[in-house]
Amino acid sequence: MLTLQLVAALAAFVLLIGFAAMFKVSRATAATASPGDAPPEWIYEAEEAELTGVSVAASAPGFSGQGYVTGFDQEGDALTFRVEVPAAGLYHLVIGYRSAFGEKRLNLQVNSRAHGEVVLAASDAFTETAPVKTLLQEGANTITILAGWGWYDVDYIKLSPAEPLPGRIANELVNPNATPEARALMSYLVDMHGKAILSGQQDYKNLPWLAENVGKLPAIVGFDFMDDSPSRVERGTRSNETELAIRWHRQGGIVTFVWHWNAPKGLIDEPGGKEWWRGFYTEATTFDVAYAMSNPDSEDYQLILRDIDAIAAKLKQLQDAGVPVLFRPLHEAEGGWFWWGAKGPEPAKALWRLLFERLTYHHGLNNLIWVWNSISPEWYPGDDVVDIVSFDSYPPPGDYGPLISQYESLVSLVQGRKLVALTENGAIPDPDLLQAYGAYWSWFCTWTGEFLTGGSHNSLEHLRKVYHSDYVITLDELPRWDWLQTR
Q: Per-residue confidence of the chain (487 residues) as pLDDT tens digits?
């Protein structure tokens, strides 16, 4: 008697043959009848897809099929593949491409719905992207590549059934002396993994707008130590973020802090984007983090310590008030637009470790849950100093995709052992898509201003759907922290 696995494999093989005949799939492989073989794979050549504003070429060597598609240089340029799959579900999409003019990004649509950006690493030769997980319906589907940054070539796309990533989240913190409050919060986040996503909003002042327009408050509020940076304080800034965070904690909410760290010195302070109050940006300061970290006897290094100690005083107030903090310093380091990431990964990682050691061991701050905020493995400072990994997402307005590629990149970065969070976002991912894709972000945190209230990044209808979803945890659904600490 045929086994169910054998029947399924044979069915997939028959469907594959039919697809190749009907849709001119130039190359394809399918599962054989032997259990344990690789899953079926379908490859669609770009030159056989529907072209909009682009053309077929064959001058660059190394392409597959009869050619490749080039000429992505206008906003409306597009390439649409019509594909068929034997069953509804999640599939891995790989794009064969060439990007001879540096790193590029394209925008993806699946069945006419936005599916986010795909990064094309610089390559003079034809190569492939990392797999992008996409949800396809049984039978016919469309996959469209939109120009995005442009100036790249597309050779083919490849589809194969997606399999879940392995991993088991560790319910522990890197600081063995973590406070009961921090341990309780971490345990709760781990318990919620895969069951729900926590809602979050940057800036306490947005809460009345959410209450009035959405009818719910977030589980998490984001605060910023920006105006506590000494180079800002000496120019007259004042901040009540610490006091507001304590107030939010007493309301039952969860606190996260970022630090737009104004450079310790070397503020250019010129009009046109280099004003002193923009001193966390690389372009607005001459401060050299690589020099500072390589010269611990220098004034620059001592100023770094001064700044860390100033923030330690604020964190101590929070610890004394029993507030656990999802702490996310040195955010978006790999982007290079902030001074702490301007000199590459090694100085940034060294600074992260200095922050961790200074705050944990010198100042005895045990209320912190350490949240790293870059995807690239070369930037990762190490499992021993990171509790949670994260990503900041600003897709096109109204793109409510699940960000599955970024999620899975972070899961792979930590071998599935740590939580993954969406620590800043413009558009909020659709809760239904998060569940369908298995994109188990621990929380989201919508940025302030137009990203919340403007109506384009997040429509009011979408905000209400998100905040009233059974999959999204809001303030009123959080547990009592005093009860959690006694479990």
A: 333 343 334 334 333 333 333 333 434 333 333 445 566 899 999 999 999 999 999 999 999 999 999 999 999 999 999 999 999 999 999 999 999 999 999 999 999 988 888 989 999 999 999 898 999 999 999 999 999 999 999 999 999 998 766 668 989 999 999 999 999 999 999 999 999 999 999 999 999 999 999 999 999 999 999 999 999 999 999 999 999 999 999 999 999 999 999 999 999 999 999 999 999 999 999 999 999 999 999 999 999 999 999 999 999 999 999 999 999 999 999 999 999 999 999 999 999 999 999 999 999 999 999 999 999 999 999 999 999 999 999 988 999 999 988 999 999 999 999 999 999 999 999 999 999 999 999 999 999 999 999 999 999 999 999 999 999 999 999 998 765 554 4
Q: What angle do CA 451, 452, 458 make, to 5 degrees?
A: 75
Cβ-count burial of 453 within 10 angstroms (0-12 exposed, 13-18 middle, 19+ buried)?
Answer: middle
Check the CA dihedral 50-54-55-58 and report its sign. negative
Tell me the two tokens of residue 256.
């996260």
The rounded distance, in Å, linking the Cα atoms of 30 and 16 is: 7
Task: Indicate the pTM of the whole model.
Answer: 0.81
187, containing H or E segment? helix 180-192
* Rg of the chain, C-alpha, whole Å: 25
Residue 157 to residues 95, 103, 129, 143, 397, Cα–Cα distance (Å): 4, 19, 10, 9, 26
Of the residues 181, 241, 332, 408, only one is catalytic, namely 332
| Residue among 482, 388, 469 at smallest CA distance from 193 | 388
Task: Mark whether 75 is an active-site residue.
Answer: no
Q: What distance in Å separates the CA atoms of residue 109 and residue 138, rounded to the nearest whole number? A: 17
CA dihedral 208, 210, 215, 218 (to 10 degrees): -110
Contact, 19 vs 84, CB < 8 A?
yes
At 357, the amino acid letter reads E
Q: How far apart are CA 14 and CA 478, in angstroms?
A: 51
- Mapped onto helix, strand or coil, the DSSP state of residue 12 is helix
CA-to-CA distance for 123 and 102, rounded, in angstroms? Answer: 7
- Give the side-chain half-sphere CA count within 13 A for 396: 14
Q: Is 332 a residue of the active site?
A: yes
Taking the CB of residue 379, how many other CB atoms lie within 10 A of it?
20
